[in-house]
TrEMBL record:
Belongs to the SecE/SEC61-gamma family. Component of the Sec protein translocase complex. Heterotrimer consisting of SecY, SecE and SecG subunits. The heterotrimers can form oligomers, although 1 heterotrimer is thought to be able to translocate proteins. Interacts with the ribosome. Interacts with SecDF, and other proteins may be involved. Interacts with SecA. It is found in: Cell inner membrane; Membrane. GO terms for cellular component: plasma membrane. One of its GO terms (biological process) is protein secretion. It comes from Arcobacter nitrofigilis (strain ATCC 33309 / DSM 7299 / CCUG 15893 / LMG 7604 / NCTC 12251 / CI). Essential subunit of the Sec protein translocation channel SecYEG. Clamps together the 2 halves of SecY. May contact the channel plug during translocation. Keywords: Cell inner membrane, Cell membrane, Membrane, Protein transport, Translocation, Transmembrane, Transmembrane helix, Transport. GO terms for molecular function: protein transmembrane transporter activity. This is Protein translocase subunit SecE. It is a single-pass membrane protein.
Amino acid sequence: MSKLKTYYKNAREEIGKVIFPIKEQIRSAYISVFVVVTVISLFLALIDAVMSFSLSSVIN
């Protein structure tokens, strides 16, 4: 039982050291990820379209 109390006490101390992000930090991280994913997706779509067009023109 003593080990369980010690474990619980240590766990509470460690949780007290954790710094949780605030809403503004979460929002800015979300926007950053959304922008990066969107830009990369558009870039890959452009490359796909160019390669598809060039391959179809070579085949035809």
